[in-house]
Structure formats: C-alpha cells, structure tokens
Amino acid sequence: SLLAFCQRNAKSRQGALGFFLLGYRAWEDRKLPEAKQYLEGSNQAASPIQDYARFYLASIAFELKEFKESQTHLEDFSSRFPNSPLLAKARLLFWQSSLELKDSHTLLNSLRGLTGLESNPDALYYQAQAYDVLGDAAKALPIYQKLYYQFPLHDSANLTAQRLSALAGGDLPVPKEWRITRIEKLLTGRRH
What's the predicted TM-score (pTM) here? Predict the structure, then answer.
C-alpha cells in the first residue's frame, strides 16, 4: 500500500510525495486530523511541493480553529516560496489567521514592503481590520474609505460599508473621481 511505502521511505522525496498524496486525499474527504498527520509526514523530507504541504497544513489548522498553528505554518511562506502558485492564497490565510488571533502587529508587519498594496483589496481589507482591532480609527478609516469607493465589488464590501459607517458616523469628504469610480464599477458589476 502507499502508506506502507511512505512509512518505509519517510525521509525520501518519494515518501514525502506519497504522504502529500495521502494527506490531500484525506483533506478532500474532510478527514482533517488524518490529513494533518499525512501532511506532517510529507514535511519530513525535501520535495518539490513543500509549499503545497505547508499551505494545506495551515488550511487544516485554520479549519480546526488552530489559528496560531495556521499562522506559524505560513510565517515565512513568502520568503521560502516566493514563486509558489499558492503565494496569494497563503498570504490571505496568514492574514485571516492573524486577525482571528487579534495579532494585528504581525499582520501589519507582513504587509510592509508588499508590492501593489494600494491596488490589492484583500491586503487593504486586512490592513484596515488590523488597525480597527488596534483601535486606530484614524488609520483604519481612510483604508475602509478607499476600499468602499475603489473596490465596491470586493468580497468585503458589506463589512467595509458597516465599518466605514460605524467609524465615520456621517458623510465624509470624498474625491468626486472616487464616487464616479464606485458608480461605474457597481453598474458594470450590476450590484446596486
């Protein structure tokens, strides 16, 4: 069986790949503790898909509400796997885990030097949330405002509108171009 092969060859590249396959199958079948065990076995040896093993371990930890473990699996993901196809998903999961832990400082540190931050609605959303958790409305408010007007179709649109309203209270001064951009994007996306 594949499991027996993996156990005999735990320190080999082939064993790591086999453990990953077993872990991924268990993950697909929603057998999370089993998937976690196999993916941990996959991390025992170097393999060309260590980024995948690390990402799925973090995903499982998140689903099991083990947010610190999820965060730990992804702490150095960007530097270890800068060319991974999972990099954007790993960053998002890291930010989600950090927010669940109310670890705003770690979340904000991970955003420092992020290329394209101003045009990345996910990054902006988690940046605003981090400042919000810290109670820094002066920093959170302009970010929520930017999200609301420049990314009105983003997944966080409803929560962004709620937080913007709660923090600002009334009508904030907004550049006319931002209002026009919001209207155009909403009409294009047919969400009014």
Answer: 0.89
